[in-house]
Design goal:
TPR repeats lie at residues 117-150, 151-184, 185-218. It comes from Prosthecobacter dejongeii. Residues 1-27 form the signal peptide. The protein is an all-alpha fold and 264 residues long. It has helices at residues 73-76, 84-95, 99-112, 117-129, 133-146, 151-163, 167-180, 185-197, 201-214, 219-231, 237-249, 256-263.
Length: 264
C-alpha cells in the first residue's frame, strides 16, 4: 500500500501572514495587536491605553488570536513619555489595517525617543503586516539591539529568518526568545519547526512536548506533534491520533491527508 505523505508542519501565521501553501512544516496561527502601555505622562491621569502591536506570546488556533497579557514594564520598558494619543492612534490604525497611519504614529514616537525598543518593535510589526519584510527585519533588529530582553522581537526575527530559509539563524533567535521568556509556548513551537527543518526530530518532539506542557490548550502544538508521530518509521498511529483529535477539539481545522494516514 502506498502511503500518503505527511503534510508539513507549518509555523505560525503570526506577524508575517505566511500562506499555508508556502510553508512545509507545521500548523499556523494568526496574530493581533497585543497590549503594552506607554509610560504615563508626569502629573497626569490618563485612561487605560488600548493595545499596541508587538508579536504575541500566547497561542490560539482560531481565526483571531487573543491579546497577550501585559509584559512586565520593568523588563521591556515602555513607549516614550507623553505618547498616549499616539499609541491610541497607532492601535486604531493597526486594527483597521491602515498601515501608513500606524507607521506614521510609531515614526513620530521614535522622533521623541529614537532608542525606544518597543516603538521599534511595533513599527516592525506594522512593516511586516504591510508586506515590507526587509524594513520589518531592520526594525526588529534595532529593537533587540536596544533592549535584548524583548522575547517577542527575537521570535519575530526568527520567523523572518525562517521564511528566508536562514534556519540556523532562526534557531538562534528562537532559542534567545525562550531564554528571555521560558514559558512562551509559541516560541517552543517555532523552535520545533526550525529543528524539524534541519532533521532534528528528537529536538523538535521535545520542544513540542514542552509547548504542550506549558499550554495544554495549544491546539497547533498538538497538531504538529501528531504530524511528527505520523512521520516516524514506523508511524506512532495511536499517539498521532490522540494529539490530532485533541488539536481538532481545540479548534484546529481538520486535515484530509492526516485523517487518511490515521486510517491506513
Amino acid at each position: 500500500m502506498n502511503l500518503s505523505p505527511v503534510p508539513a508542519l507549518h509555523p505560525i501565521r503570526c506577524l508575517f501572514l505566511l500562506s499555508s501553501a508556502a510553508l512545509s512544516l507545521m500548523a499556523q496561527e494568526p496574530t493581533v495587536p497585543t497590549t503594552l502601555p506607554p509610560k504615563p505622562a508626569p502629573a497626569a491621569v490618563t485612561a487605560p491605553t488600548p493595545p499596541v502591536v508587538v508579536p504575541p506570546a500566547s497561542p490560539a488556533p482560531s481565526a483571531t488570536a487573543p491579546a497577550m497579557t501585559l509584559v512586565p514594564p520593568g523588563k521591556t520598558g515602555g513607549l516614550p513619555d507623553n505618547t498616549t494619543v499616539l499609541a491610541q492612534r497607532a492601535a486604531t490604525a493597526f486594527g483597521e489595517q491602515k498601515w501608513e497611519e500606524a507607521r506614521a504614529a510609531y515614526e513620530e514616537m521614535l522622533k521623541l525617543d529614537e532608542r525606544n525598543a518597543l516603538a521599534w518593535a511595533n513599527l516592525g510589526a506594522v512593516e511586516q503586516q504591510a508586506g515590507k519584510t526587509k524594513e520589518a527585519l531592520e526594525c526588529f533588529e534595532k529593537s533587540v539591539l536596544i533592549n535584548p530582553n524583548l522575547a517577542q522581537s527575537w521570535s519575530a526575527l526568527g520567523l523572518i529568518y525562517s521564511s528566508n530559509g536562514d534556519t540556523y539563524r532562526a534557531i538562534s533567535c528562537f532559542t534567545r526568545a525562550i531564554h528571555e521568556e521560558p514559558a512562551d509556548a509559541r516560541a517552543h513551537n517555532y523552535l520545533a519547526i526550525a529543528a524539524k527543518n534541519l532533521g532534528w526530530i528528537d529536538a523538535a518532539q521535545n520542544e513540542l512536548q514542552r509547548a504542550i506542557e506549558l499550554n495544554p490548550q495549544y491546539g497547533i502544538a498538538h497538531f504538529n506533534l501528531a504530524l511528527l508521530y505520523l512521520d516516524q518509521k514506523p508511524p506512532a498511529i495511536e499517539l498521532a491520533k490522540r494529539h490530532y483529535e485533541k488539536a481538532v477539539a481545540l479548534g484546529v481545522e481538520k486535515d484530509e491527508i492526516v485523517e487518511r494516514r490515521l486510517k491506513e
